[in-house]
Amino acid sequence: MRLINKVIIVTGSCTGIGKAIARRCVAEGARVVIHGLDQQEAGEALVTELGADKAVLHLEDITADGAPQRLVNQALNAFGQLDGIVNNAAMIATSNIHTTSLAFFRTVLEVNTLAPFALIQAALPHLTQTRGAVLNIGSANAWCGEPDLVPYSASKGALMTLTRNLGDTLHRENRVRVNQVNPGWVLTEKELAQKRGQGLADGWHQELPRTLAPAGRILRPEEIAAAAIYWLADESGPISGQVVDLEQYPLIGRNPPKDADALPALKE
C-alpha cells in the first residue's frame, strides 16, 4: 500500500472528487479527515463505510475564522500526526463579466484560493515534521476558462500560481512538497445535478460529441483519485511545484476535428 500509516486531510470530501480521493487514500493504507460544509448525512455515511478507526468527520465552512487550524487539530487529535493535505473544496458557480459582482468574486476567491493557502499555513509545522505533501485540486479552467466561469477560472489560475510558488519555497525551506492536478470535465454528483437542472435528460453523458469527449465519455472521480495518490505518496520523490492537467485532450494546440461540420456553429 502506497500511503501506509499516513494521515491525510481531504477538504470537500463528502461527495465527488474529494470523496473518491478519501476512499482511495484509505485503500492505500492512510487515515483521513473527511471534510464538508453541511453534508452531515453523506459525511457520516462515508466515515461508516471507511471505518471509524480510519476516518473522522469535520463539518465547517472552510473560510470561517480558525477553520483551517481546527481541521489540523482534528487530524492531530484523532491520529496524532499529519502527513498530507488535499485542497479539494471549491465553489463552482456560473457567472460572467455582466453578472459577477465584486462581492461574489471575493467569495469565490476566499473559498478556492485563500482557504487552501490558509490550510497550508496551518498545517505547515506538522507537514514539516513528517516531510509531508500538499496536493491542490485545480481545474482545466485555470488556463483560461469558459465565459460563464469567470471568478471560478480566475481563482483556479491563482491557485496554480500559488502551487508553483509554494512548491518551490516550501520544498527548499521545509522539505514539504506542493503540487497540483487540473481535472477536466468530471462526472460528479454536482455535475449530474447541474445538468438535470438545466433540463438535460439523465443519460446526457452517454451521448457526448467526440469534439467534447474524444473517448466518448468524461472523466470519473475515481480516475482523478488514482492520479492523486502519486502526489501524496513517497514515490513521487522530490517533485514539487508541478501542475498536471488531467484531461483527455491537450488544452493547448489541440487538433481540430477533421469534419468541419462537427464544430459547433457560431452564434450571430
Describe the protein.
Helix 1 crosses helix 7 (221-232) and helix 4 runs parallel beside helix 5. The relative contact order is 0.14. The protein has two domains: 7-184 and 219-245, NAD(P)-binding Rossmann-like Domain (Rossmann fold); 185-218, no CATH class. The radius of gyration is 19 Å and the shape is globular. Strand 1 (7-10), helix 1 and strand 2 (31-36) form a beta-alpha-beta unit. The mean pLDDT is 93. It is α/β, with parallel strands linked by helices. It has seven helices and seven strands; from the N terminus they run E-H-E-H-E-H-E-H-E-H-E-H-H-E. It comes from Arsenicibacter rosenii. This is Short-chain dehydrogenase. Pfam families: adh_short_C2. Belongs to the short-chain dehydrogenases/reductases (SDR) family.
Task: Please report the total strand number as a whole number.
Answer: 7
H/E series = EHEHEHEHEHEHHE
Largest sheet: 7 strands, parallel
> Which structural class is indicated by helix and strand composition?
alpha/beta
Classify the fold: give the CATH topology of the largest domain.
Rossmann fold
The overall number of domains is 2
Helix content: 40-55%
- What's the CATH H-level superfamily name of the largest domain? NAD(P)-binding Rossmann-like Domain
C-alpha-based Rg, rounded: 19 Å
Please report the first level of CATH classification, the CATH class of the largest domain. Alpha Beta
Mean pLDDT across all residues, rounded? 93
Q: Any low-confidence stretches, pLDDT <50, length ≥5?
A: none
